[in-house]
Amino acid sequence: MGGRGTDVAREASSIVLLDDDFHSIVQTIRLGRRIYDNLRKAMGYVVALHIPIAGLAVFPLLLGMPLILTPMIIAFLEMIIDPVCSIVFEAEAEEADIMSRPPRDPESAILPPSLLAWCALQGSVSLALVGLVFAFAIANGLEERAIRSVVFTALVTTTVALIFVNRSFGGSSREVLTRPNPLLWWAVLATVGILAVVVTWPPARDLFRLGPLALREMGTCLLAAATLFAALQVLKGFWKVRLAA
Q1: In total, how many domains does the chain have?
Q2: Angstrom distance (rounded) from CA 218 to CA 114
Q3: Which of 7, 13, 36, 107 is deepest in the core (most CB within 10 A)?
Q4: Burial of 162 per CB tally in 10 Å (0-12, 13-18, 19+)
C-alpha cells in the first residue's frame, strides 16, 4: 500500500497502490483489457483492409485492365486508415464480457491464427465485392476514368463498412451501429465529405484522374458496402472469433 506501507516495502514491491484501494487493481485490469482489445481491432482492420488494396494493385496489371490505384488514391486511403487506427479504435468502448473472460496467456500472439484467418476472410469478401463492381463498370462500357471513379468509391465505402464490422468481434449489427463513439462518426463524416468533393468537383477529379460518377454507379457502391457489412456480420456469428486469446 502506497499510503500505509513502509518505504522499504514500497521499494521492494512490484506494484504500489497509490490510493490504498484494491479496487484500483480491478480498474487497471479493465483498462488494460480494453486497450488490448482495441489494439487487436485496429490491427485486424489494417490486415483486412490491405487485402482489397493489394488485389486492386496487382490484378489489373495481370489481367490487362485499367489501372485503379494511382498515387493520389493510395494517399487518400492512407488518410482514412491512419486516423481510424490511431484515434477511432482507441476510443472504442469496452466489450460487454471484458471482465468475465479468463486471464490470457502472456505468451499468446496478439493476432492468433484464428483472428488472422477472420481478417483474411474479411479482406477476401471485400475484394470479391469490389471486383464485382469493377466488372459491372467494365460491362457497362464505362471509359477508364469513370471505371476508376466507380471502383475507388466502392473501395472507400467498403472500407467504412470494415470499420463498423471491426468495432466488435462479438457484437450484433445493432450494437456496432449504435454504440457511442463520437470520433467514429466524425471520421465517417469527414471521409464521406472528402469523397463527395473528390468525385463531384472537376479539379479534384482531374487530380485523382477520376471520371464523373452517376447515381446508378453510386448506388452500386453503397450496395456493395451494405452487402459486405451484412455478410460479415452473419459470418461473424458462425466464426465465433473472440478477442481473448
Answers
A1: 1
A2: 35
A3: 36
A4: buried
Element (H, E) at 33: helix 23-63
Determine the angle formed by the axes of helices 113-139 and 144-165, rounding to 10 degrees: 150
Q: Which cell numbers hold the place of 87?
A: 484515434
pTM recorded for the entire structure = 0.87
In tens digits, the chain (245 residues) has pLDDT values of 656 666 667 677 777 777 777 777 888 889 999 999 999 999 999 999 999 999 999 988 888 887 888 888 888 888 877 788 778 898 898 888 888 888 888 888 888 888 899 999 999 999 999 999 999 999 988 899 999 999 999 999 999 999 999 998 877 888 888 888 888 999 899 889 989 999 999 999 998 899 988 899 999 999 999 999 999 998 887 766 554 44
Report if residue 6 sits inside a domain: no
Extract the C-alpha cell encoding 170: 462479438
Position 17 in a domain: no
Q: Which domain holds residue 54?
A: 37-239
* In a domain? residue 31: no
CATH number (domain holding residue 156): 1.20.1110.10
